[in-house]
Amino acid sequence: RPLVGVLALQGAVREHVAMLEHAGARAIGVRRLDELSEVDGLVLPGGESTTMSKLLETFELLEPLRERIAGGMPAFGSCAGMILLAKQALDGRPDQQQLGGLDIVVRRNAFGRQVDSFEEDLEFAGLDGPLPAVFIRAPWVEKAGDDVEVLARVPRTPSAGEAADRIVAVRQGTVLATAFHPELTGDERVHRLFVEIVREA
Ligand code: GLN
């Protein structure tokens, strides 16, 4: 069983650990460099991306993490984690750091102009049947590079407004990200997909 870390500086850590264990991995919280060096892959949970970016600097994990991701370590970011993995974040703070595993531009709190949080069933590439997705002050992907695989978009429902068709899940090589929180629904399929990516890597 691969060892998968969950960045444990802030945010929804326990839920990811539980889901990873259900999905067939061993899981540990990662706060220190020696823990980061041990894991075969890393989950970056939801929370507040600006705070997490600061804590990464304080705990001296920012550069080591950038290096591991650039070196091919599988990573999965949900919500704030997606923001951290993006090459660029709009509506961020000027001092917010990016880890840069994904050639995407995200917009923070993008749905906030309409509603703060909502649930929606999504079609997710490679998964059979609709995936329940919980969005909490979520970002969306405004732009994705040619090497980025789009896995899910917001469906065109009457209430979707300008959110319709926005990209909310992507993969680039061994880096996976969702704007929503698959750890909150009891549906393990996204975590299984990530554990599979870690196994193959
Ligand atoms: N709005 C948060 C941010 O910008 C993300 C919210 C979340 O992770 N649920 O970092």
Give a verbal description of the structure.
One of its GO terms (molecular function) is pyridoxal 5'-phosphate synthase (glutamine hydrolysing) activity. Pathway: Cofactor biosynthesis; pyridoxal 5'-phosphate biosynthesis. One of its GO terms (cellular component) is cytosol. This protein has 6 helices and 12 strands. 44% of the residues are buried. The radius of gyration is 15 Å and the shape is globular. The strands form 3 sheets. Strands 2-1-3-4-12-11-10 form a 7-stranded mixed β-sheet. It has helices at 13-22, 33-38, 49-58, 62-70, 80-85, 189-200, and strands at residues 3-7, 26-30, 41-44, 75-78, 86-90, 102-107, 117-122, 131-136, 140-144, 149-153, 167-172, 175-178. β1 (3-7), α1 (13-22) and β2 form a beta-alpha-beta unit. With 201 residues, the protein is an alpha/beta fold. The longest helix is centred in the last third of the chain and has 12 residues, at 189-200. It has one domain: Rossmann fold, CATH 3.40.50.880. Helix content is 26%, strand content 30%. Glutamine binds at residues 46-49, 79-80, 83, 108-109, 136-137.
Residues in helix, %: 25-40%
The CATH topology: Rossmann fold
The domain count comes to 1
CATH superfamily: Class I glutamine amidotransferase (GATase) domain
Ligand types? glutamine
What is the string of helix and strand elements? EHEHEHHEHEEEEEEEEH
Tell me the CATH architecture: 3-Layer(aba) Sandwich
Strand content: 25-35%
Which structural class is indicated by helix and strand composition?
alpha/beta
Question: What is the mean pLDDT?
Answer: 95
How is the largest sheet built, in terms of strand order?
Answer: 2-1-3-4-12-11-10
Organism: Amycolatopsis xylanica
Keywords: Glutamine amidotransferase, Hydrolase, Lyase, Pyridoxal phosphate
Family: Belongs to the glutaminase PdxT/SNO family.
Subunit structure: In the presence of PdxS, forms a dodecamer of heterodimers. Only shows activity in the heterodimer.
